[in-house]
Design brief:
- This protein is α+β, with helices and mostly antiparallel strands.
- 25% of the residues lie in helices and 28% in strands.
- The protein has an 8-stranded antiparallel β-barrel with strand order 1-3-2-8-5-7-6-4.
- The longest helix is centred in the first third of the chain and has 18 residues.
- The chain is globular, with a radius of gyration of 18 Å.
Length: 281
């Protein structure tokens, strides 16, 4: 990697989204291995990956997931409550190839040197590239800082577009029709808990690009898959946060543009502690 400043700014290009369950009985051991070693050695020390954050879905949060009737061949989490810990990482725009070339080799190197952890199961580990974002406030938190900002919650919404609906058509509809409601103040004048929404499409691996020393779960889906990440200023359980997500999902379905495959809430882990490890099941 050449340490030059030719890029016009720091920009998010792609994301690693990795949703994993520890084997029951290994919750603390898994979380400590991930936070103390793999979070850094498998990701952050690599070239052009500049931000990462861990999130958790406790039993209570898993029980909020919907819809419950997704066909197995379209499921993101199968079963619906699969995936307790989510890690999200941002890779600099224009330098994805360099980072992923390093990452593909690094994971095998770590396992070869006994720095892996077998007592875990991936529910959904996929690479995504971003296509844009919407913000509640005109001068709010920049997207490239979203993983460093102390957001209190995250909601992932995976959808499959219907018919000939393109991803740009879906995001245009979101910006014009859905965002105003998601970002609107509540009836009592309180600010919307949803601060920004980032739009993504999956990177479909070619050949050996997606090889890993473990099964990575449900896979990226088809080219009709889109993802929205909603960054929240509150816990998703607080106030009207989750009702806003449910209303948004209903609007997606009513639009005829897409079908919701998974809406899942998370809260941040507390780094360096075992907090929440006893609340997963």
């Amino acid at each position: 990697m050449e340490p030059y400043g030719a890029d016009d700014a720091v920009r998010v290009g792609s994301m690693l989204f990795t949703l994993v369950d520890p084997t029951p009985g290994f919750e603390v051991a898994y979380s400590r291995w991930y936070e103390r070693d793999h979070f850094y050695g498998g990701c952050l020390v690599g070239p052009w990956l500049f931000a990462g954050r861990r999130w958790v879905a406790t039993r209570e949060l898993k029980d909020m997931r919907f819809p419950t009737d997704v066909p197995a061949d379209a499921a993101v989490a199968d079963p619906l409550d699969a995936g307790s810990y989510l890690a999200t990482y941002f890779v600099h725009k224009g330098h994805e190839a360099e980072h992923f070339a390093w990452a593909n080799k690094q994971v095998f190197e770590l396992y070869a040197h006994d720095r892996g952890f077998d007592e875990r199961r991936h529910a959904h580990t996929v690479l995504y590239f971003t296509t844009g974002d919407d913000h509640r406030d005109p001068d709010g938190v920049p997207t490239h800082m979203a993983l460093d900002h102390p957001y209190a919650g995250l909601v992932s919404v995976h959808v499959d577009r219907t018919g000939d609906t393109s991803h740009p058509e879906l995001t245009e509809w979101f910006s014009e029709q859905a965002a105003p409601s998601l970002f609107a103040d509540g009836a009592d004048g309180t600010r919307s808990p949803i601060d920004q929404v980032v739009h993504w499409r999956p990177i479909i691996p070619k050949g050996s690009e997606g090889d890993a020393p473990m099964d990575l779960g449900s896979g990226p889906g088809t080219r009709a898959r889109s993802l929205q990440l909603m960054f929240l200023s509150t816990d998703p359980r607080d106030g009207d946060a989750w009702q806003r997500v449910r209303d948004y999902a209903a609007a997606v379905e009513a639009s005829g543009l897409a079908t919701v495959r998974l809406a899942a809430p998370f809260i941040p882990t507390i780094f360096g502690t075992d907090t929440y490890a006893d609340q997963l099941w």
